[in-house]
Task: structure prediction
Amino acid sequence: MTEHKGCIKCGSKDAGKKEVSMSGTGLSKMFDVQHNQFVVVFCKQCGYSEFYNKQSSAGSNILDLFFG
Result:
């Protein structure tokens, strides 16, 4: 098993994270209710991004998940 440390696309170790909310389907989409919350971890060099469910994420270790 090959172990990588850095972005899986470009190898950069410069990442950021943001919290985003999105609407679902049906009535929540019609009324623009954004109850789906995610943490997006992204590579600052190439823009590769991964979404993690905020309610089940590993909290402060989320960057570790991104880097492998």
Summary: The helical segments are 27-30, 62-67. The chain has a mean pLDDT of 76. The CA atoms of residues 39 and 59 lie 9 Å apart.
